[in-house]
Amino acid sequence: MTQQGVRWTADQVLALAPDAASRKAGSKLGAAGPWSEAGSSDEGTVWGLCKGSGSKPYQTVVDIADIAGPAYKCSCPSRKFPCKHALGLLLLWAGEDGAVPAGQGPPPDWAEEWLAGRRKRTEEKRAGGASGSPTAADPEAARRRAERRAERISAGAGELEQRLTDLLRTGLASAEQSGYGLWEETAARMVDAQAPGLAARARELGAIPASGPGWPVRLLEECALLHLLDQAWLRREHLPDDLAATVRSRIGLPASADGPPLRDHWLVLAQYDTADPKLTTRRIWLYGTESGRTSLLLAYGAAGRAPELALPMGLALDAEVSAFPGAGQVRAALGEQFAAPSPTTGRPRGVTTAQAAVRYGEALRLDPWLDSVPMTLDRVVPAPDGDSWQLADADADLALPLTPTARSRPGLWRLVALSGGAPVKVFGELGHRGFTPLTAWPEGTGEPVSLC
Asked: Rounded to two decimals, what is the model's pTM?
């Protein structure tokens, strides 16, 4: 949305794209050539007609002021949301050449009809939520279901322990000989035991022998963590409540965000998607400017479709979030929003590389199965380290290595170009493989740069 005349940047618009192909196609439509009758209102609506291959132009409208995130409507046949026309329209609107005039009053009838329908559905949903009183579930039946599932998980954990014992007895070299099939079968058994967390970790074991030099060490590490999770589940009654909640989460039991709502002005630090054949997962990192808390929002979409929730990097929102249970957990659910997301120049507080290493150790003490923790580093310089790269502290003789994933991304070169040898502030994820940068800010003033 616009706020005091401020519009989104091109990077914030392209962060909404469901895939790389959409980003490329949308970028081509971000010029005035194919567009006509484009305009925008003070209420946060952008519209326009885009000439396509047919005789009639595509009617495209975007509701940017929706507090649940941007909403899109286009008459094109694309099943992607947003489609390339919506992305192109937003890029045209984000430009500074006035190609999309502002403050034009109400949108055209075809756009207003869609907006009115959206408002009506939103009001009906709110009214239904306020007046609805779902019937309470039978607590005794729920308790019996939970007990039966716990018994199946315990049986699966016992079987997995036997598989790990057999592996260590015969030697790690047997994992390379048996191939992926053994662990895929084990994962299927864990799915039958209703322990999806154990299933996912079992599948990861099968891929390690083919992961390159040093794989036996990595396999032993992952086997140890899986053994620890098994034993923690089997002895969960003796664990502190927070740690027991973490174990249940790692096993794959569902949980709700039952923490008290925390209202804050949240900076959107990063947004990126990961995909597998069945699911697209969107990770959105938020930072509370008053609380100093970093929270993770997860959103999901079917394979090939972007999740509905979209909060591009560089925006801020006045909202409540509620934490999920568990020791040291950063995942949260987005609650009531009090205004639409808007551009911001705010930045998160950072730490030194030494402080980051200490905080990572403290996080592992609370949750040994953490893959990574969110971290903002102050005054670091990207520097080569042989065949690798690292983030060196500009004020101390200490550096954090970059992960192999980070070294293979184009974002590394954007980070190097942004720094130019000078210190920068970097937000990313710190794990036992190193640091993965996601967003960077130059020293002093300047807009954030996405490295995802």
From this structure: 0.78
Least confident of 82-91, 155-164, 227-236, 307-316: 307-316
| SS3 letters across 304-337 | CCCCCCCCCCCEEEEEEEEECCCCCCCEEEEEEE
Q: What is the pLDDT of residue 43?
A: 77
When the pLDDT of each residue in the chain is averaged and rounded to a whole number, the result is 88
Per-residue pLDDT at 254: 87
Dump pLDDT digits (tens) for 171-207: 988 888 877 888 889 999 999 999 999 999 999 998 8
